[in-house]
Structures are given as structure tokens and as C-alpha cells.
Design goal:
alpha/beta, FAD/NAD(P)-binding domain, globular, single chain, about 425 residues, 2 domains, 13 helices
Length: about 425
């Protein structure tokens, strides 16, 4: 069998099959499994890339029935049961399969304005997070070099678009940077007094999926950290020097800002459309392929789509869904090998959480609403539990101690020119 993608869905499917009588080939265009919920901590200097991106081969090294193939998928022929890939050196390869699990994830969506991507990049990959780190810390360096007050302020203004968990978490951490980690680092400006972090959300509230009460608590916590929260505000234009934002009253306001981060909207991997075109399945408006109750494709019970690229009962695009659907697809394959009938997928909601700032988080779990320090402790425990490998958990705990209990941000090195 072939698994496409080493994300939560693909990796958990592969690990579930470690004792199954099958030969597994896991193919991904990167050599690592990415713990995507913590990308923003790489971008803001808390964690290193290796702490959230362990090598896939190392994670699966004890699984003798599994081969990891570093390659990019270019096509899927569901009729011939073949996956076409290209290796990094340009050599093509065809991978035949009896069963196929595709967990290719999702990318950023700009709602029809792809031209915004040049000036307001998103954060879906490790490369994205490292590039954002260069831009964020580079902005402080450029501000230190700037003589003109207005241009310096533009470098010290950070715009985050999107009030979901990712947007809230990264805006809160940028504010923490300026008010804690970078104090006394610069001579020509005071980060705590001069840095502005602007969060724009098109809806009426941030963190809308958490409910009104937690959304309000999250807003107050962000504002206490120093983030300006603008709801009912839609970004209408983005360029190198700032953003144009349409407010609740319809007025368009210009905000000079050199650093913009897009955290609004997702679009399924292009592989979802390739699968849909080849199998006759449909895709929704976000590009996600519609699947049957057992996560397989209609007319092709041997093909499964899992995680962010699938549409099943409008489940959210979160890590828990990817993990559970990946395991379910793998379990279905094992059931078939044993002559048993497949079962429909049942999602076990493990709740939602977001770290608003240092020592503050909000948690929603089966009607239980928790915020503040207790929510933050729960957030710490859950994220440590889902990380891959003891060494990564241990190193992450040390980094969190330095950043959250102290003021340190150890990952601040710049390797590219900013300006």
C-alpha cells in the first residue's frame, strides 16, 4: 500500500500498520513530519525547526514493513492503481498500490486575491515559518537602522490577518517579543513602547469557534498583551508598505506596515482535485474532496482521503481530525485483510485550544470552558503529549521554560538580507 503525506494523517496511518501483513510506502516531498500547530513558535524564536519537525525516517525506523520515499506526487491513476512521483533529482517513479491513503493537507487561501501572497505570506510549512522568523526579527533590525521616524514605525508595525487560533497565537507572541524578550536590545527605539501589533478579523469576533464567552476572554487577554484587535475588518489591499482595510462602517483605512502575516483561510492540496478528476468525486469550495463515511472515495473503496484535504460532515481542519481519519483508514484496511466489513468513521472531539499569550490560553472541551493559567497548563500538556519523540518533548519543555518563565528567545539568528 501507498501513503501520500507524512503529516498527522499519513504518519498515524503508517504507525497503525506497523504490525499489519502489508508493505507500506510512505511518500512525501519533505523528509520530516511537521507538528504544524507550533509553527508560530518557530517563527517567533521560541522553538527550533528540529523540535517540531523530526525526520520521518527516524520516526518510522523500527517499522520493518515501511519504506519512506522522498519524492513529490505528480499524478494519481486510480484506474491503474498507480501513483506517479518525481524524486528530488528529477527521476520519475511509479508506485503501484493495492490500497492508497492520501493525506496531503492544505495550503493557504487568499479568497481570490493570490497577489496578496507576495507581501503577506502564510505559515503552513517549515520553510514558511523560518521565512517569517527572518521577516519578524529582521524588522526589528531594520528599525534600528532607520533614521526616519515614520519609516521606523512602519518597520515596527506588524499586521496579522485572521482571528483564528494561528492568527491569535502569533500576534500574541509578537507582542510578547516586544514587551519582554527584546527589551534593552536596541538603542534607537523602545520595543515595548513603539511596536504595534494589529490583528484584523473579518468576522464579528476572534476565535469564533470557541463561543462568545471564550472569544471575549481571548480578546481581553490579547489586548492586555498589547495587540490591537480589529473585528469586522476585511483586508482589501496589500503591498510592500502596508495594508488597506475595509472597516465595519465600509471606510477603507491605510495602515503602514512592513511585516504582514496571513493566517486567514485554507485551501486543500491540489492532489484533492487530481483525485476527484480521476475518480469522479466532487470537491467543495475549499477544494476538499468529498468522501464516503469510511473516508474512502465513491467507487474506489481502496482509496482513502484523510485530514485537511477531505470533506466529511464538515469536520474541521485540525490535527485531531487528521490523526483519527488516518488511523481509521488504516484500521479499515486491516479489517478488510481479516475479511471484516468496514465501519463508518466516528470523530471523537478532543476539544479546541489556543495559547493567547504567555501563561494564558483558552480551552473548549465537551461544554467545559477554561481560560487563563489553567487553560495554559492544559495547552502545555496536550501539545507535549502529541509531539513525536521523547527528545523533542524534553527539548521543547526546556525552550518553553526559557521563553515563558523567563525572557529568552534562543532562535533569533538571521541568515538572509532583510530590507
Amino acid at each position: 500500500m501507498v501513503i501520500v503525506g507524512a503529516g498527522f494523517g499519513g504518519l498515524f496511518a503508517a504507525r497503525f500498520l506497523r504490525h499489519a501483513p502489508v508493505e507500506v510506502t510512505l511518500v512525501d516531498r519533505t523528509n520530516h513530519h511537521l507538528f504544524q500547530p507550533l509553527l508560530y513558535q518557530v517563527a517567533t524564536g521560541i522553538l527550533s525547526a528540529g523540535q517540531i519537525a523530526p525526520p520521518t525516517r527516524d520516526v518510522l525506523k523500527s517499522q520493518k514493513n515501511t519504506t519512506v520515499e522522498l519524492a513529490e506526487v505528480t499524478g494519481i491513476d486510480v484506474a491503474a492503481r498507480q501513483v506517479a512521483v518525481v524524486r528530488p533529482d528529477g527521476r520519475p517513479l511509479t508506485l503501484p498500490y493495492d490500497s492508497l491513503i492520501v493525506g496531503a493537507g492544505a495550503g493557504q487561501s487568499y479568497f481570490g486575491h493570490d497577489e496578496f501572497a507576495e507581501f503577506a505570506p502564510g505559515m503552513k510549512t517549515l520553510d514558511d515559518a523560518l521565512a517569517q522568523r527572518e521577516r519578524i526579527f529582521g524588522a526589528f533590525e531594520m528599525a534600528e537602522l532607520e533614521e526616519d521616524a515614520d519609516r521606523r514605525q512602519a518597520w515596527l508595525t506588524f499586521v496579522v490577518v485572521g482571528g483564528g487560533p494561528t492568527g491569535v497565537e502569533i500576534s500574541g507572541q509578537i507582542a510578547e517579543l516586544s514587551r519582554r524578550a527584546l527589551t534593552d536590545n536596541f538603542r534607537r527605539f523602545d520595543p515595548a513602547a513603539e511596536v504595534k501589533v494589529l490583528l484584523f478579523e473579518g468576522g464579528k469576533e476572534i476565535l469564533a469557534t470557541f463561543g462568545d464567552r471564550l472569544s471575549e476572554k481571548g480578546t481581553k487577554a490579547l489586548q492586555k498583551t498589547g495587540v490591537e484587535v480589529h473585528t469586522g475588518s476585511i483586508v482589501a489591499g496589500v503591498d510592500a508598505d502596508g495594508v488597506d482595510v475595509k472597516g465595519p462602517d465600509g471606510t477603507v483605512t491605510r495602515y503602514p506596515a512592513k511585516t504582514k502575516i496571513w493566517a486567514a483561510g485554507v485551501s486543500a492540496s491540489p492532489l484533492a482535485k487530481i483525485l476527484a478528476d480521476g475518480s469522479g468525486a466532487e470537491c467543495d469550495r475549499a477544494g476538499r474532496i468529498k468522501v464516503k463515511p469510511d473516508c474512502s472515495l465513491a467507487g474506489h473503496p481502496e482509496v482513502f482521503a484523510v485530514g485537511d484535504m477531505m470533506n466529511l460532515n464538515d469536520l474541521p481542519g485540525v490535527a485531531e481530525v487528521a490523526m483519527q481519519t488516518g488511523i481509521h483508514a488504516a484500521r479499515t484496511i486491516r479489517r478488510r485483510l481479516n475479511g471484516e466489513e468496514p465501519q463508518p468513521f466516528k470523530y471523537r472531539d478532543l476539544g479546541s485550544m489556543a495559547a493567547v499569550s504567555r501563561r494564558r490560553a483558552i480551552v473548549s472541551f465537551h461544554g467545559v470552558r477554561v481560560s487563563g493559567f489553567l487553560g495554559w497548563l492544559m495547552w502545555l500538556f496536550v501539545h507535549l503529549a502529541f509531539m513525536t519523540g521523547f527528545k523533542n518533548r524534553f527539548k521543547t519543555l526546556i525552550s518553553w521554560s526559557l521563553s515563558f518563565l523567563g525572557r529568552g528567545r534562543t532562535e533569533r539568528a538571521l541568515t538572509r538580507h532583510v530590507g
